[in-house]
Design brief:
single chain; mainly beta; Legume lectin domain-containing protein; 113 residues; three-stranded antiparallel β-sheet
Length: 113
């Protein structure tokens, strides 16, 4: 089940509708040393309140040149997670918005044996 905040209310999506996609904003404020994670169904505007917000100083790990990656897990069961697009900004400005209409579709779901 996916969850997100829409209009500052918790919104839960049923498992079967999760295939339509989720978009997430992962933002780091270097001045406040805070990481915010905001999620919503694909195509919706960014909610005003993050789902997660944590004070975290990333200064010791962020470098001028570095690789970044993504990881996902649901626990003991196998699952596929697809990142179909992302944008990034390192200069303090918001990352450029994604045009959802030009992103690729996820591969078809595999059938369980």
């Amino acid at each position: 089940m996916a969850a997100c905040l829409i209009s500052n209310r918790l919104f839960r999506r049923r498992q079967e509708s999760a295939t339509s996609g989720i978009q997430a904003w992962v933002e780091y404020d270097a001045v406040l040393k805070r990481v915010d994670v905001t999620v919503s169904p694909a195509g919706n505007r960014k909610p005003t309140t993050p789902l997660l917000s944590e004070s975290l100083d990333l200064t010791p790990v962020v470098r001028e040149l570095m690789y970044v990656g993504f990881s996902a897990s649901i626990g003991e069961k196998a699952s596929a997670h697809y990142i179909l697009g992302w944008s990034f900004s390192a200069n303090g400005d918001p990352a450029p918005p994604l045009n959802i209409s030009v992103l690729p579709s996820p591969p078809p779901a595999e059938k369980s044996p």
